[in-house]
Amino acid sequence: MRTLRGGQFILAMVGLVFSWVFFPPGMIPGFFPEARAYSHANETLLGFCLALFLVAAVARRPLERLVERHRGVMLALALSGLAGYGLLTGALAIGHYSLPFALVVTFVLAASYMALMLCWIMTLARIDTRQTMVLLFGSAIGYAALTMGNFLPAEGRMALCATSAALSGLCWFFLKPAAVPAPAYSHEAVALRHAPFALLGLLAVLLIGGRVVTGLYFNLDKEVPFGELLVRCACIAGVMAYCLVSARRGASLEQGYRNTWIPAAGLFLLGAMMIIGLQGPTSYLGLGITHGALNCFEVLAYLIMFRFVKNDRVSPVMVVSLGMIVFKVLPIALQRLVFPQVISDLGLTEGDVAPAVILMSMVVLVSVLAFANHRLTAAELHALAQSDEEEGANAGSAVAPSTIAEAGTRGAMAGPAAAVAIQGAPAAGAESSADAKPAPHAHPSFDEACTDVAREAGLSEREAEIMALIAHGNSQKHISEVLYLALGTVQWYAKTIYRKLGIHSKQELINLVTDRVEGE
Questions:
Q1: pLDDT tens digits for range 340-353
Q2: Which stretches are transmembrane (predicted)?
Q3: pTM of the full predicted structure?
């Protein structure tokens, strides 16, 4: 994986900060209230984004080649958003605008946004995992600061939205391309079967449900109160700063997930209770807290998706494009279009019971999800949370023989019911006599055979360790006790190991290693 240094890292951070700014609260009709043809531009823009990300997921292979080989074309597409806003403003100034014109320009804006996202998706997919965590957390803090731009005059807000995509695209363009060839990604849809659906499913429920809740209030006041926006920014910055410090200190993916999930879920609950309990303008403080928690959940979803891409070498465009639909486009459409319209059509106000009922339901739902989170996601987190050294092993570096030997020793030291030695294989941890000399063409020992198999299959150190324990005949339950892992985690690792080795059972693994020992 690529590691960014010095100015390149700063350039990536700045580019990602500005890539977040695309969906301002008022969006296009708020910038052009006098243009009736632009009144449905929000729906059109989100519809185009949805369609384009679906196209990207389907046409993932040629789009990845386009990003890798034609950086100038991608930059031009990213800069087209600036031209789109310019066309909207110019047409309004001369009085020549229409619905077809608005459709064309909103398509240009959506295409610009999708092109920008594709550029950063391909870049983050090839960056070291720890740096990806730092970039995501750090850019979210920068985005929180840029959110205060909503209090600029309409011209200033539009200029911020129009120039953000262009600035982000320029930052991406001036990043030096990776010196090593792109990994061989799997572009088959069947590769998604190994995705961490429990993790991503929980986050999708929280994001969509939370956007529905906040959407109930989106129609009540067109102006976002200063207190709400300030609280939202403070919540995002606080949680992300904590995660950023933790990541800089070497936190694993699992620690990064916990560090984000726990405070964000707590903020979500606090915000929901404040919305219900407080009356009048002060209730918007709770809304700001809830919004902040939702932004943290979104960052967490991207982190999980990129780790899955790097772990299983699945097409990043396919995974993240689908994720953008589920975690961004659909929730925003529900929040800003669907539910405000429902509230308006029904004539509901703050005093009506519907918002309180839905908010209370969300509090209960989040409580249940928080309680069930660890049990549902522990296995997937352990499988995804590999260290930087394990990344190197996945890229093809050799697995240290000491890893296999240590695995065998652990199995042997765990007790009489622990390591079940394979017939004909040397006992785990056994050592030859100090003055015994190996024959010139001696067969490898069982542990050495395990090391060779793991190295040739490109297993990580943790996978090699578990593979050795399985090959020595240990049950998955026993391995979970020896390594202090959840049983589900060991089962997940076993499936991954079997898939990489092209086998389907424990006995096939034992036969594979035994054949290597016997020289077959």
A1: 677 667 766 655 54
A2: 9-32, 44-63, 75-95, 101-121, 133-151, 157-175, 196-217, 229-247, 259-278, 284-305, 317-334, 354-372
A3: 0.70
